[in-house]
Design goal:
The structure holds two protein chains of two kinds. Helices cover 59% and strands 15% of the residues of chain A. Chain A is an alpha+beta fold. Chain A starts with a helix and ends with a helix. Chain B has helices at 10-22, 24-49. Chain B has two helices and no strands. Classes of the chains: A alpha+beta, B mainly alpha. Chain A binds chain B through residues 1, 70, 73-75, 77-79, 81-82, 85-87, 89-90, 93-94, 114, 117-118, 121-122, 125-126, 151, and chain B through 10, 13-14, 16-17, 20-21, 24-25, 27-29, 31-32, 35-36, 38-40, 42-43, 47-48, 51-52.
């Protein structure tokens, strides 16, 4: 690789020299003088710049594109490792412990609390951009979702979703249908019943925390800026929320 | 392939879980840093072996 780099580096001055020599030799051979010589020199110089400069610009662009692709690949690999090794593996281990203690209610409740901490922390720290917040809204009876835990930006959620209000009906229906919601920009396309104002976030997603048979609540993740969350984050959030539901169902 | 038995097994996972529960912010900050370094190293190795 080093030898090839050296050849590429040497080829540039060689190319410039060859291109320059071509029009200098041409001018000398044709014995040009005065205006003709001036025009030949100027034209030759411009053509040399074009002949050498344009490939160099193309090469620079190709190098930049390769560097960007490498960076994207690096970030994707790092994210994959973070989700699998540092978030899902400890969570799967914890769910195994819950399963092992199925008969001991007190132990199970404590481990379920730990699973909630792990899922919310992973959702806020591993997905999307920096400074996310993950919140868990738990069913308090069939008609209310209340905030019970959160992780991330130091701002506890306060919203209570109650059936009979537009946004309460909307979120409870999402949960009943086990559907998720991704809102890329609450200012541009707010969900039903959205009230602008005191909210300190611009984008959010919501996923059901439920098994096929039992609903526990809804997990939301929000970010301060448009683009902080993507549809890819929604898929990962669904996995985290489903695993939390499995832990809570024990 | 290198085998690192200190980074796997239930004991190692339990240790990581304890760290995660104690201070999730620090745990994921360190994990993010290590994942980035690991990814950079792996990518570089793959590019070298691919002749780039």
């Amino acid at each position: 690789m080093a030898a090839r780099d050296r050849i590429v580096r040497l080829s540039r001055p060689v190319a410039v020299t060859a291109a320059t020599a071509a029009w200098v030799v041409g001018a000398v051979v044709n014995d040009l003088q005065g205006l003709a010589l001036g025009a030949s020199l100027a034209g030759g110089a411009v053509l040399t710049v074009l002949a050498v400069g344009l490939p160099m610009i193309a090469e620079r662009r190709a190098r930049d594109r390769a560097a960007s692709a490498e960076q994207v690949a690096e970030e994707a690999a790092a994210r994959m490792q973070l989700v699998l090794d540092d978030a899902l593996e400890p969570l799967a281990y914890l769910i195994g412990r819950i399963a092992d203690r199925a008969g001991r209610r007190r132990d199970v409740r404590e481990l379920q609390g730990q699973a909630t901490v792990v899922v919310l922390a992973a959702a806020a720290e591993v997905l999307g951009a920096q400074r996310l917040r993950a919140c868990l809204f738990t069913l308090a009876g069939p008609n209310r979702l209340v905030p019970t835990a959160f992780h991330g930006r130091a701002e506890a959620p306060r919203t209570v979703f109650t059936r009979g209000t537009p946004r309460g009906d909307y979120v409870l229906e999402l949960l009943a249908r086990r559907e998720d919601l991704f809102c890329p920009d609450v200012a541009a396309d707010p969900p039903p019943g959205w009230q602008p104002g005191g909210h300190q976030y611009r984008t959010f997603l919501a996923v059901p925390v439920a098994t096929e048979q039992r609903a526990f609540g809804v997990m939301t993740i929000d970010g301060l800026h448009v683009g902080d969350l993507t549809p890819d984050d929604l898929s990962a959030a669904r996995v985290f929320a489903r695993l939390l539901a499995v832990a809570l169902a024990a | 392939m290198d085998v690192d038995s200190s980074s796997n097994g239930d004991a190692a996972t339990q240790r990581r879980l304890t760290q995660l529960l104690r201070d999730p912010g620090s745990y994921f900050a360190r994990a993010r840093r290590e994942a980035q370094e690991h990814a950079r190293r792996m990518l570089r190795e793959r590019l070298v072996s691919a002749g780039r």
